[in-house]
Specification:
Layout: E1 4-7, E2 10-13, E3 18-24, E4 33-39, E5 46-52, E6 57-59, E7 67-72, E8 77-82, E9 91-97, E10 108-113
Parallel strand pairs: 2-10
Antiparallel strand pairs: 1-3, 3-8, 4-5, 4-9, 5-6, 7-8, 9-10
Length: 114
């Protein structure tokens, strides 16, 4: 399966913003849905946002109103804009094709300090 490469993470203070990118080696156009997950230490993996090819989106309640998912099929790239970051947003963020956890890349670390 074509590789996914996440980037854009970093360390920010609470209230800050980051923009995550997921570059796909291979088209994402035919992937009906692309998903962002996050894995925080000691917590279960959580799907935080997803977008299908029609532009319909899903957001976890914990990020609604703060995170925005988008995709650029021409660039084979998925994005996640993070705003109003909270310490509980800390974790490693992964993108996947659909809900296929095995398709994820290496992830990108987001650390939010108070």
């Amino acid at each position: 399966q074509e590789q996914l490469v996440e980037s854009g993470g970093g360390s920010v203070q609470a209230g800050g913003s980051l923009r995550l990118s997921c570059a796909a080696f291979g088209s994402i156009e035919n992937n009906h849905c692309m998903t962002w997950f996050r894995q925080a230490p000691g917590k279960e993996r959580e799907a935080v946002a997803a977008m299908d090819i029609y532009g319909d989106t899903f957001y976890a309640d914990s990020v609604k109103g703060r995170f925005t998912i988008s995709r650029d099929n021409a660039k084979n790239t998925l994005y996640l804009q993070l705003t109003g970051l909270k310490t509980e947003d800390t974790g490693v963020y992964y993108c996947t094709r659909g809900l296929d956890w095995g398709s994820r890349g290496q992830g990108t670390q987001v650390t939010v300090s108070s």
